[in-house]
Design a protein that fits this description.
By secondary structure, this protein is of the alpha+beta class. It has helices at 49-55, 151-156, 173-185, and strands spanning 15-24, 27-31, 38-41, 63-68, 82-86, 101-105, 111-120, 123-127, 137-147.
Length: 186
């Protein structure tokens, strides 16, 4: 009879499968209810630190409610993470409305997200804070599986498979150049 080599509790370097519902201010923002459980490599900062810390020692089938403060999630709002860009620097196909989310790439090729936070006359203000910065996160979680990671997953620091598709590199070069030139001016 073969021994079960799968882990029995959540610990560092264990692949965790978890069902979850994320609620902020009473509104459900995300859930695995209609999809597969979230899979991640524990102890490798694949999820917010406050949630990761609360999972240690949990077993398959165990459920928990976890509250994560902004400092242990996406941080507090950084007042220096705002850019003002001239309206005429934006491509015509981007709607210049408060709340529009954009993906930008800096001159090192790093991807960052921004949200239009204000439009005043000829100026558009971009908020580079994470959309959940400053928010307290409420998680309802259930551990659905634990397994040993592959050597490649350990080496890369994350789970491989359908939950970790490569980031879409198809960005609007004109807009990317715009952000680069605006950041150089600041």
């Amino acid at each position: 009879m073969e021994e079960n080599t799968n882990p029995t509790i959540v610990a560092d370097d264990v692949v965790v499968s978890m069902d979850y519902t994320l609620t902020v201010n009473g509104e459900v923002l995300d859930s695995s209810e209609e999809t597969d459980p979230l899979e991640f490599l524990q102890g490798h900062q694949n999820i917010v630190p406050g949630l990761e810390r609360e999972l240690y020692g949990m077993k398959i089938g165990e459920s928990k409610k976890v509250t994560v403060a902004p400092e242990d999630a996406y941080g507090t709002i950084d007042k220096d993470a705002f850019l003002e860009i001239s309206r005429d620097e934006f491509p015509e196909d981007i709607p210049l409305e408060v709340g529009v989310e954009l993906d930008l790439r800096d001159d090192e090729g790093e991807v960052m997200s921004a949200t239009i936070s204000d439009v005043q006359g000829d100026m558009v203000q971009l908020d580079l804070n994470h959309p959940l910065a400053g928010e307290t996160l409420q998680f309802d979680i259930k551990i659905t599986g634990l397994r040993i990671p592959t050597e490649e997953e350990l080496e890369h620091g994350h789970v491989h498979g359908h939950d970790h598709e490569d980031y879409d590199e198809d960005f609007d070069d004109e807009f990317i150049d715009l952000v680069d030139s605006e950041e150089e001016q600041n």
